Amino acid sequence: MNSIEISTRPFTDQQPGTSGLRKKVQVFQQPHYLENFVQSIFNSLRHYRDKTLVVGGDGRYYNRHAVQVILRMAAANGFGKVLVGRGGLLSTPAASNLIRKYEAFGGIILSASHNPAGENGDFGIKYNIDNGGPAPEKITAAIHAASLTIDRYLTLDSRDIDLDTVGTQRLGDMQVEVVDAVADYAELMQTLFDFDRIHALINSGLFSMRFDAMHAITGPYAVEILENRLGVTPDTLLNCTPREDFGGGHPDPNLVYAKDLVDIMFTSQAPDFGAASDGDGDRNMILGRNCFITPSDSLAVLAANAHLTPGYRRGIAGIARSMPTSQAADRVAEKLGIELFETPTGWKFFGNLLDAGRVTLCGEESFGTGSAHVREKDGLWAVLFWLNLLAVRRESVADIISSHWQTYGRNYYSRHDYEAVDADGAGQLMARLRELNGNLKGKHFGGREVAYGDDFAYVDPIDGSSSERQGVRIGFNDGSRIVFRLSGTGTRGATLRVYLERYEADRALQHLDAQQALADLIRAAGEIARIPHYTGRDAPSVIT
Ligand code: G16
């Protein structure tokens, strides 16, 4: 079957953000829009002829159509084989696993993560490289550059592939193998965690839990692992049937959007453990009875207890966290005598460190934790890690976090989001902060003195590449800090994120409400950045 060449013209808005290209579905539905971006990916790659590509997505509206488009274009561009998840579905960590396990050239993942889905929702697409991780900036920059000069793309005039039957089909000269990625992923988890011990805990009669897949991709993975292999009862699993519109919800596992689960976990009769994951299965939220574990604390607890699991029994090489993530993990790294890396926001910045064996665990405040087992953050992995700790320690989630704070001190932490604000106003706010921050040293806010103000820049210790303007940091003389940055994943206006952190060593003061404990810093942030003036908002839309 001969490939056909379609003439096209560039779109000027195809610059990948924190994690690929995310836009409203209607934007992707413009003629040639998706095809242009896919061809731009291929145009920025070399030596992929006859190689294998992994393709799949989180099942949101437009997923199936996009998979068919990509299959035709992959065949026309000379790939030898595509591995595609059954139904066109792959969670992000499962896609990363497939790329690694089958030594694929790379993968295309269709997802806008936790962003709402449906005809009026969001869609997204990103490219992952052969280590299974998100493409680094030099590749995303090349894709963007290619998107600005594209004048044609290649496709086939062919029927749709049957995506629902596991097995191999042909598309032109290319093989398409529809795979059951759930089994591959479950096997990987079984090599890392003590399934017998978790099974014993779950079936002890002394333990109860809930897992909320938020009508998104992790449903089938949770059923296979938690129900079929670990023995939870079906009523333990909430919203585990994936829907194209995620049931009309916002599958972001945090205290605001995972409301069904939060309502269950904050009562006197609550289960012992609760967890949720997001649209594409890479984020997680961990809860105990009446207890929320911040993602930053979760990373620190996992690092401190990793030796209790089979997969990390021999210890961890190092830890990496994104800059705005709290410094709780730094204290664990120090005690363990291992390296700690502070990277810009975005999982892509962990890839080199993981590949070089410098770090084993990574985490971000944005509800992401993961390890060297794949090159993406991994929601169910974090849930199983916690279950393994609970099975070994036989303590409550609240007791585990309290004793962690007693040992290491508590990093009070919160993120305030001002979502979908006017982009110009948000840009001006950041520009003013950048001008100001060099002159803030020595000034006082809320009883604290500013020790430094800067705009975070990062030099990758492995390949020397540098990334500038990654967030304005204002640090105080007591070690507390405020970070301001604009989200790179939103699709409407701009989203201002304000990250607040303060350390508390005094055990008697470690059980305050975080908003109360951070009240001075919250006020200082508003004052320094003049948030109401630039955003027109006097309160954040989401607090996590
Ligand atoms: C993506 C990235 C994460 C990042 C998060 C938030 O997550 O993979 O590394 O922390 O976005 O980014 P921002 O603050 O720029 O919105 P996901 O789960 O959306 O793919």
Care to describe what's here?
This protein has 544 residues and is α/β, with parallel strands linked by helices. The chain folds into 3 domains: 3-178, Alpha-D-Glucose-1,6-Bisphosphate, subunit A, domain 3 (Alpha-D-Glucose-1,6-Bisphosphate, Chain A, domain 3, 3-Layer(aba) Sandwich), CATH 3.40.120; 185-408, Alpha-D-Glucose-1,6-Bisphosphate, Chain A, domain 3; 410-543, Alpha-D-phosphohexomutase, C-terminal domain (TATA-Binding Protein, 2-Layer Sandwich), CATH 3.30.310. 33% of the residues lie in helices and 25% in strands. The chain is built from 18 helices and 27 strands. The strands form 6 sheets. A 7-stranded mixed beta sheet has the order 2-6-5-3-4-9-8, with helices on both faces. A 7-stranded antiparallel beta sheet has the order 20-21-24-25-26-19-27. Strand 13 (284-288) and strand 14 form a beta hairpin. Helix 2 crosses helix 3, helix 6 (181-192) packs across helix 8 (218-229) and helix 7 packs across helix 13 (379-393). The N and C termini lie far apart (53 Å). The mean pLDDT is 96. 1,6-di-O-phosphono-alpha-D-glucopyranose binds next to loops.
Entry summary:
By secondary structure, the chain is α/β, with parallel strands linked by helices.
Computed structural class? alpha/beta
Bound molecules: 1,6-di-O-phosphono-alpha-D-glucopyranose
> Average pLDDT across residues?
96
CATH class of the largest domain: Alpha Beta
Rg, Å, rounded: 23 Å
Give the assembly state of these chains.
Answer: single chain
Fraction of residues in helix: 25-40%
* SS elements, strand count: 27
Can you summarize the main beta sheet?
A: 7 strands, mixed
The appropriate CATH architecture of the largest domain is 3-Layer(aba) Sandwich
What's the end-to-end separation, in Å?
A: 53 Å
Low-confidence parts lasting 5 or more residues at pLDDT below 50?
A: none
User: What is the overall silhouette?
Assistant: globular
Number of domains: 3
Strand order of the largest sheet: 2-6-5-3-4-9-8
The helix tally amounts to 18
CATH superfamily of the largest domain: Alpha-D-Glucose-1,6-Bisphosphate, subunit A, domain 3
What is the beta-strand fraction? 25-35%
What is the fold-level CATH name, i.e. the topology of the largest domain? Alpha-D-Glucose-1,6-Bisphosphate, Chain A, domain 3
